[in-house]
């Protein structure tokens, strides 16, 4: 099968198109022909091998897995002898976190992994990036933020993959949503349901006082210290971008003060919890309250171009690869 092979850390030029042996489904696995796979900001950070602590999981001197990529959508081509929930021809989507391998034409996924039947109201391209942004934002809004109806929630980086999912999920749970993004993306976040918008090129949301019950900084560009005054008395600041300042703030606020700084590595959650979040995500999708936002689609061979585009920082929603013409 055709795949993008990664043998080192560095610039997008490290990606090479090659041929790999087509995987065979084990008794508990399904073999999926990939029709679309996601390319994320996290992928571009992982490619650089920085921060170095991340290499403890993905390989010290070079990547442990030759084929990267986690998000996918496609069609089941074969099933293992013990599989009961899927059959050949089923349309599916999900996230293959443990072994990756979705920068390719085929991937095998455990039946009890993060995989589900494709809802009828999603295309392959829309679904490919749904788990990364959807499950992560669901984790931050519900598990960390304990989102409630009528709460005031601010989402910084509202037009990206995590942000577009977060706006819709927060509205699903009945929150009052303020979306922060740049000028060109204001119409997008309004269309997704944001009650209020802030153009960060014109206005600084951190200048507000005692306003937001939850600030979800999807891009990690404003610290807890920046946002402290904008939080209500028991407000929560949460970000998926972990650095020493956030780590320090988490330690301090866990002991002192009512306002809290929080982080979670969604990809490291127990499988049972991730499956639970996937189930909730499906309910929101099937209720028509979460739609995939698609920015660009690249052929598999143009993965380097996709990474280069994402690194420019202007991505709207999701970027996907299309292994199947």
Task: From the structure above, extract its key features.
single chain; about 325 residues; alpha/beta; Quinone Oxidoreductase, Chain A, domain 1; Rossmann fold; 2 domains; seven-stranded mixed sheet; 10 helices; about 25% helix; about 25% strand; globular
Number of helices: 10
Return the structural class: alpha/beta
User: How many extended strands?
Assistant: 15
In CATH terms, the superfamily of the largest domain is: Medium-chain alcohol dehydrogenases, catalytic domain
* Main sheet summary: 7 strands, mixed
What are the segments in which pLDDT stays under 50 over at least 5 consecutive residues? none
- Radius of gyration over C-alpha positions, nearest whole angstrom: 19 Å
SSE series: EEEHHEEEEHHEHEHEEHEHEHEHE
Number of domains: 2
CATH topology of the largest domain: Quinone Oxidoreductase, Chain A, domain 1
Beta-strand residue fraction: 25-35%
Choose one word for the global shape: globular
Question: What share of residues is helical?
Answer: 25-40%
CATH structural class of the largest domain: Alpha Beta
Task: Give the integer mean of the pLDDT values.
Answer: 95
**What's the architecture of the largest domain in CATH terms?**
Alpha-Beta Complex
Q: What is the straight-line distance between the termini?
A: 14 Å
